[in-house]
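Good morning N.,

You mentioned wanting to compare the apo and holo forms, so I went ahead and generated the holo version with nicotinamide-adenine-dinucleotide. This is what I fed in:
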Amino acid sequence: MLTIARADRVFILTGAGVSAESGIPTFRGVGGWWRDHRIEDVASPHAWQRDRRLVWEFYAMRRRVASEAKPNPAHFTLASLERDFEERLFVCTQNVDDLHERAGSRKVVHMHGELFKSRCDTCSRPPFEDTNLYEAPAEIPRCECGGWIRPHICWFGEVPFELDGIYSALDQCTLFLAIGTSGAVEPAASFAAQVVGHARTVYLGLEKPSNASNFRDCHLGKAGEILPGLFTILR
Ligand code: NAD
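and this is what came out, ligand included:
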């Protein structure tokens, strides 16, 4: 059982494991079953330069999978925690799906981007909602500036989004809870080490993560089964 006091500032970091029970494969799962490509071959600036259609084929496939998935009890529990804690809860996800939002979460920081948004690869036009590309386009769409429209995703070798806000929330948190993330992808893998001096650090996932030594408690099991009963909130 995890006790949360009203005065706590809670930082939640979610990873692919939180969406696994919704039917979205985890990182290793994707690499394992998608047309024998390594993830770096379809999710990197180099891949985009080499074969834009292949990259869009990969993301169109992921859009189809994510659009058919439904939020699970772990997503709903975090949405309900947000209603309780409001600005004292910071949800940062490495996931690019929209299952937190579809469960009712209103403020989610997507540090690795959003699957249903696209942007120009050249100009500073803001990312835009794009629910059209469920099949790879025959012609890669172009921006008015002449650039190519790409997925709004932080690829391997690119800098994640909203890091200033994330590091500020890490500095302020008193409880850090990571859910379903293997602790292998930086910079998120180092967040627990950064806060362990001033916050309680708790992990929930199927197995111990690579960075387990930075967590005070590890709860092993499925997020959708354990998270709904994990908290006691002191009123
Ligand atoms: P990861 O695949 O490296 O690790 C997933 C972790 O979740 C593993 O430790 C696994 O044991 C655990 N897990 C599996 N099923 C679980 C369950 N039911 N409950 C709790 N834990 C469970 O994923 P990661 O650490 O998030 O990093 C991989 C990268 O892949 C991220 O950058 C992310 O952007 C990307 N990714 C995102 C999605 C998505 O948006 N849903 C899916 C796949 C990959």
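Residues 15-17, 19-21, 24, 26-28, 30, 94-97, 112, 180-182, 184-185, 205-207, 209, 222-223 surround nicotinamide-adenine-dinucleotide (CB under 6 Å).

Happy to go through it together on a call whenever suits you.

Best,
F.
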